Amino acid sequence: MKKLWGGRFKEQTEGTVESFTESVSFDARFWRHDIEGSIAHVKMLAKQKVILSKESVSIIKGLNEIAKEIESGKFRFKESLEDVHMNIEHALIKKIGPVGGKVHTARSRNDQVSLDLRLYLRDEINTIQKLIKGLQKAFLKIAEKNIDMIMPGYTHLQRAQPVLLSHHMLAYYEMLERDSGRFADCLKRLNVLPLGAAALAGTTLPIDRKYVAKLLKFPAVTENSIDTVSDRDFAVEFISAASMLMMHLSRFAEEIIIWNSEEFGFVELPDAFTTGSSIMPQKKNPDVLELTRGKTGRVYGNLMSILTIMKGLPLAYNRDMQEDKEPVFDTVDTVKACLDVLNKMMPGMKFKKKNIVSATDAGFLTATDIADYLVNKGVPFRDAHAITGSIVKHCIDKDKTLMELELKEFKKYSKKIGSDIFKHISIEASVDARKSFGGTARKMVLARIKNIKKK
């Protein structure tokens, strides 16, 4: 098949080169954005009298017909035509004749592909942000439903201090809030029109880039044609934001995997989101969460891939940049799949209160409250810390909890300790005492829930 760019070539492209250089096998997913961009471009060309109005009407009609054919599955993308852009342009010329070739006036595939990628990511970021918002709502519902449940808070995976389960779940809400903000920031830098940069130097034809930007809802236009066609910062930034999101989803997945184990027994996952063993009938495996954790590495790999592609490229466009799309596409698909399945799994999670309470009652979780109590009695914190450590050691030796100690046992370690100590070292008192802004006290958590719902 004769190439649309083949005027200066004497020989046909070798078959293996066609297979090696084609991208339509993966960039065909751009078809909708490619046609949208071409229609806006053609409207501008007619407005600027670069092409005739009737030519614009004919081209737009042809492009809309091609869109319907692709939508219905009748359109066949050809590897020999290299990419989605050439496939659509070739089909347009075949459909309406030589006038179809005017669609590419005053543009290059270099600025065209940047436009398609930006339009595509703009849509996908909006979808991802909606999925993030859905997951945030799921965490919020769990927090509201379990506002009175106290659990061990952990550092170093060791029981540390008592916290509300609601407070723990809302920690993931905050992570997702930052993730959503990163995608919003990425969108600001992505949402700039590249079309009109042409191959790298702009065009001699009297185009109106701001008009195209208005048609395609871009709030700004790129300022430097060389930078425009060589820029993939927005794609790198998108995958970076996605990597951070996946890190947070993976941390949540890891935690629920641990909590779902027999050793913890804090949570039970819904049957519909677990799998069995091919040999052990008793097993109920958290495969959805394990795959979420595993797919995080896949997105990290995509980030390293696109950074490596871009790191040594001289200005302006180089064909290496064709390799940007698969990491982007795979990241989009992976992130959306993980968010979607977690959104569907979360409502069916059940927290096992008995096991959580049992774990909270053990482990000297209110030891810090003894130290704080002594500080309030005028004892320097370092001395209070040492006294409390001795009390904990005494409990371990006597196989007692802090609440099981008698007042005389406390006084053995500090005369400052009075009978009011027992009001400070209950699990409930410990939680309620943490009223500092952002703390785990029920009052503070309820206030945060209220503010989130108001927002």
How would you portray this structure in words?
This protein is mainly alpha-helical and 455 residues long. The chain is built from 19 helices and six strands. Helix 3 crosses helix 8 and helix 11 packs antiparallel against helix 12. The mean pLDDT is 95.
CATH topology of the largest domain: Fumarase C, Chain A, domain 2
Radius of gyration: 31 Å
- Name of the level-1 CATH class of the largest domain: Mainly Alpha
What best-fitting shape do the alpha-carbon axes yield? elongated
As a percent range, the share of strand residues is under 5%
* Fraction in helix: 55-70%
**Architecture (CATH level 2) name of the largest domain:** Up-down Bundle
How are strands sequenced across the largest beta sheet?
Answer: 1-2
The count of helical stretches stands at: 19
Mean pLDDT: 95
> What is the structural class?
mainly alpha
Low-pLDDT runs:
none
Number of domains: 3
Subunit arrangement of the protein: single chain
Describe the biggest sheet?
2 strands, antiparallel
